[in-house]
Predict the structure of Adenine phosphoribosyltransferase.
Amino acid sequence: MSSLIDPRYIRDRIRTVPDWPQSGVQFRDITPLLQDPKTFRVLVDCFVHRYMDHDIDVVAGVDARGFILGAVIAYELNRGFVPVRKKGKLPFDTVAEEYELEYGSATVELHADAVKPGDRVLLIDDLVATGGTMIAAARLIQRLGAVVSEAAAIVDLPELGGSTLVREQGIPLFTLCHFAGH
């Protein structure tokens, strides 16, 4: 957790949408965090303050909400930003990785020249549920020879086991808050 703020400040501003995108799923909607200028600034500052002294070459954001946070953090850290996209969205040569979601499967892609061997990458997404997206993105980065120095997200849903799986892959993980139950 960030020492800058009480994690409840962020958690209390995340909207829960029941039964979306399917019955039984409690969707954690971060858009209220982004809509309020003060909350958005606090959110970004939590990550920027954590990583401003880390040896990071590039920030990678996961499609789509990871783009929002990742691009702003990259800008504030004076680092480049690379998008990890859903299959078929990148126009250049790509590497791809398929993974399982909480309610299906998907594929993510990264431009083949997005990172260089030895680059230290901060990987950002909005939340960690089953861990599939984060692990798939990390594998893409690693396949290109770069190192995921840390993965980060706003929310951890620990009951779904994703944060444990990410850490079991040897990827350090930082989250600002967590929700019990999904």
